[in-house]
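This section describes the prediction task in plain terms. A model, or a person checking by hand, is given the sequence of a single protein chain and must write out its three-dimensional structure as a string of tokens. No templates, partner chains or ligands are provided. The sample shown here is typical of the held-out split.
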Amino acid sequence: MKQTQSPSAFKGSIKMSRIYAAVSNKGGAGKTTLVTLAAGEYALRNERVLLIDADSRQNLSGWWRLCHNKQNVPDNIEVTTASTSRTLETAIERFATSFDLIVIDAPGVDSSLQTSIIRASELVISPIQPAIKEIEAAGQAIAMVNEINDEAGTQIQHLNVRTRVTIPGRNLEAYRYIRPFVAGLQQAAYRTALLDTELFERNIYRAIQNGLGTLQMQDLTDSVRKARAEVQALVNEIESKRSIHLKGIAA
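The expected answer:
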């Protein structure tokens, strides 16, 4: 099997950052929430994390400014912006050896910048809320990643995570459609996977976007404990899937 290297591969003796991207063609799909939740968990595990806000909505940058204003700046996390493919490339080149992980909040529209982000990443994750438009947007992201892999001979991994899940919402037709939708794409030879871990609709996830720092900085109430366990499971599953994927590439 042809072996390929991601942009985060080792170059000589220099360790390069892993690069992940949150991609959905639906604005408000929950990319920024996903990015900040995961970043906090990686940072707690003593990884240096750079977040790149490439979405014109600038929700990630707004969160970061509020964190500074309220003196809730998390350790091991930095945020920068990229509005073009050139500024994205510059940021990655500048910081690739300074951080363990770079996570990009991609624009919520199909664009040349979004394509550049996918090409630069080794792993793309798409949030899927239980609604038809969000499911369709995830399908578009899956198609884009697979098209880029086919054209460039790369092995960019794609994962899907269900977000804003509620107990009553699990009875919705849209929610029940997500798993067979992803399975159908897999049967059609699209390389993607649906994570078992789900992110529930939680007040704390909304609250931290108002400059409270990361989830991991909050007082350990019962609700925060449940949220922390959920995000820990998410990061564990992402890294497990990544490890399996890399072993498959090397085989």
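For orientation: The chain has one domain: 18-250.
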